[in-house]
Design goal:
Bound molecules: manganese (II) ion
Number of strands: 10
Number of domains: 1
Helix content: 25-40%
Strand order of the largest sheet: 3-2-1-9-10
Radius of gyration: 17 Å
């Protein structure tokens, strides 16, 4: 099976707290390209930004507003080719039945898709603190404090344990541990916004990077041909 993976679009309701950074028409052309070349497209979490509303703590309303603001993209994602796995910025989608983990068995290969926030200590142990941090970040952007926002993001990124050196990356070690527990050959995550591909013994770790901030990062998985690629442009 030929599968494409994208994640971390952070589609919001417009304005400074919408981190998507694409023209919707151009992004729809990118999705058409994926639909023509892949049998399935996995949306691997943080597709919608639901934590940066002006008032704190109403992700359900923010999801509705973001879907209205990007109506054509929302309609596109309803096509049968798409498979949605939620992340921590669109956790509210779990209430609508969106899973936090999906396994696909095809051509004798088991693929495991999970966003990756499950490895984040603060997200897991103090969800309110993590969500309040994202909400404050939204207000920094509204006040035009982009540099402070970027500093906070980079500090948070360091904390995530993601490293380009697969052997030292605690995020990858966690993901490969989950893959092993689920008997998966390939584990695919998002969350870190850092696209990656690294072999860990007999298992393969991949990260889809981000399609937010105007980026076009995606993964191509061809289980029949055994080809697994990271792409930064289409
Ligand atoms: Mn995330």
């Amino acid at each position: 099976m030929r599968i494409a993976v994208i994640s971390d679009l952070h589609l919001g309701s417009g304005g400074p707290t919408d981190y998507f950074g694409h023209d919707d028409g151009e992004f729809l052309r990118f999705l058409t390209f994926l639909e023509r070349n892949f049998e399935r497209i996995v949306l691997l979490g943080d597709i919608w930004e639901t934590l940066t509303g002006a008032r704190y703590g109403n992700p359900g309303l923010e999801l509705v507003r973001a879907r209205e603001h990007h109506r054509e993209i929302a309609r596109r994602f309803a096509r049968p080719r798409y498979r949605y796995v939620h992340g921590n910025h669109d956790l509210v989608a779990a209430e609508l039945g969106v899973p936090e983990e999906v396994a696909i068995d095809t051509d004798g290969v088991r693929l495991l898709f999970t966003h990756g926030h499950q490895n984040d200590f603060i997200v897991q142990k103090a969800r309110w603190l993590s969500e309040a941090g994202v909400w404050v970040g939204g207000w920094l952007r509204r006040f035009g404090l982009g540099s402070l926002y970027r500093l906070a993001r980079s500090v948070d990124g360091q904390r995530g344990g993601a490293s380009l050196d697969g052997g030292r990356c605690t995020f990858q070690r966690w993901a490969v541990g989950v893959a092993s527990a689920r008997h998966a050959d390939v584990v695919i995550t998002g969350h870190t916004h850092r696209a990656a591909r690294a072999e860990h013994g007999s298992r393969l770790f991949m990260n889809s990077g981000s399609c937010g901030d105007g980026e076009f990062s995606f993964l191509s998985l061809d289980t029949r041909a055994g080809r697994y690629g990271v792409h930064e442009r289409w």
